[in-house]
Design brief:
Keywords: Membrane, Transmembrane, Transmembrane helix. By secondary structure, the protein is mainly α. The chain has helices at about 1-10, 15-30, 30-40, 65-80, 110-130, 150-160, 165-180; strands at about 135-140, 145. It is built from seven helices and two strands, in the order αααααββαα. The longest helix is centred in the middle third of the chain and has 22 residues, at about 110-130.
Amino acid sequence: MAIVRRAHGRTVDNAPRWAVIAAYAASLVVLPSCLWRIALGFGAPIGPDLGDAEDMSGDLPDWVPMWSYTLLLSVVSEALAFLAVGLVSQWGEVFPRWVPLLRGRRVPTSAAVIPAGVGAAVLTVGTLASVPGFDEFSAPDGGTVHLEGWRLGLFVATYGPLVLWGPLLAAATVAYYLRRTRTPLPRP
């Protein structure tokens, strides 16, 4: 548990257990697709058969290697997913000391709820809209590629969890909003 606290910060005391689970799960459901994407970017034969690996670069400039693009995309995806942990952690309540000008100040509720809520809605709609076409998608060059057999199974296993990202983020966001806006009842 100490490793988790060191990496993710201290969980706030009044966060419901279900919200903590939702926030951590939201940050983890992205990981399988990131690993698949990185492996594909480094040339693993797990994606569609596109022939020459150079054909995969699509609209990328010639000086950008495909592996660096997939690595960057995966790191950014996981970093965005990790922000869900802030909805149940101390650093989501008070700006950490390494944030210039804001360190130690309370995070405005709307500064966390609005982006998280919009993100949850976009992720939910976007992933649910893509579920029916899971076996085909656009290649970097704009063409359509199909997956079959074990490659399709691996793709579904790694990208399937993304369907949960939006709803898990929404649950953690609702819990954050309720926790931060609840007015304490006067004591008799």
